[in-house]
Amino acid sequence: MKHVFILTGWCFAITAMWASAPATAADDFAQHFALQLEEGAAYYSVTLPAAVYAASQRHDLGDVRIFNGTGEPVPYSLDAPREPPRTPPTLRPVRWFPLPPTAASSTSAPLGVTIASDGSLRATSAPPARAQHDTDLIDLGRASRASRVTALLVHLRDDNYQGRVTVESSDDLRHWQPAGDAQLLKVSYNGSTLSQDRIELDGNRARYLRLRWLDGAPYVESLDMEIQALAADAAQRAERAWREGIVAHAGPKPGEYFFSTSGPYPVDRLRLNLPQPNTVAPAVVYSRTGLDTPWREVAGATLFRLHNGEVEQSNPSLELTPDTDRQWRVVVDTRNGGLGSGTLTVAAGWRPAILTFVARGTAPFTLAVGSATTVSSAVSRDDLLMGASAVPATARLGDALSAEQAARAQSARDPDAMRRYLLWAALLLAVGSLAAIAWRLARGARVPAGGGPAGMSGASSGSGAGGASAESSAADASGVSGVAGSSEGTGVTGTSAESDRTGPAANVSTAAPATGDTNGQGEGKR
User: Which portions of the chain have biased composition (kind: Gly residues) (predicted)?
Assistant: First the structure.
């Protein structure tokens, strides 16, 4: 009994020790992704795709982890996308030179301009008539290493214009490369003007630009270039990702639409695609984190979709401060009919986060995400990158692992598997010990309770033994009777009956026939 109590105590001690030990197991996460690494690097960086955001259950990606081949979590840093501090752009007027069609297709220097020794352009002839004008040449001047030209602003003299334009860039006026395209719009209606006069250039560094008007050249009143100072970390930012085809459902009120991004995407661009052409409607956009939080206004703009022959033009994307809210609401002014019938679709754009980790341990490495109970354990990038080999190599995120693949990988490399096996063994052993103790206690409680009947049963057994002795004595008496006569047999029988009453003395009586024969004869003679 003492050993049983000692064994039970050890079982409970082991169970408490293992159950209280903290652990972060890879099977606590809803989704796993395989990581493909180059051999030999100490650090790796991976740009998180949309699938990781969709699987995350936290707004800050705090449930992302990197595990090595033995299931151990490794240190990592998570650089959330954020726009660098931007100074207001500078607008500078530029000179442009209308060109005839023949000059636009020429590989030599265009007709009607000359090139000075410093590269600047000068007109040598009058501009062509509007019917022959379909190209404009622009001299941006010397490019600065500390800034970039981000856009062209085309100020139109026409009150109504809608057309497409393509942009090409060159440094020598002979070799041209595509530099973008845009749709320009200027519509006046009921005393208000709706215009889109911006041509995005995405950081052009070339000296010259060439604008080709595909739907007829407009009357250009002036041209400005937008110059933005370069950020120190501009090269480290990831390209913007987009999630297309988000359907906005109509709400209970007219002009109200709701949609969800289904993930903590840091949305900084929102493109609203109107269902019907020739639609113009002011709108306000709201967002919130959950059903129990209030709506907050994040943007407002005039939405439009205009169709003119082969040209269709829509409102540009809304620029937002990075917003990780999942629920969104669009309220459209319905005084002029709203958006009409059809479905409003949305495209959300964001700059994805970059995760950097230490390749500690053995491969394969996996990325796990999707745990409601896990909190962020990321460290800063400066604290993570140490030593001379602090330049991260590029890692690629593979396909998501299925539940069966993740389970097999976890069972093969889970460092907590042995702990769970020991825990279950200790629990089963403890339960078995408790059952043994209960059985011993119940058995001990039944024995004293049956003491009285057991004594009576022993007495009955004694009587039975006495009866057997009586039968044996009778058999012996019969044998004696054959020698000494019936009177002597009667004496022996009486002795057996007396022995039967006295219990243990029966053994003495049954053992006395040899001597009792003489005594019996003496009594008969007397």
Answer: 450-467
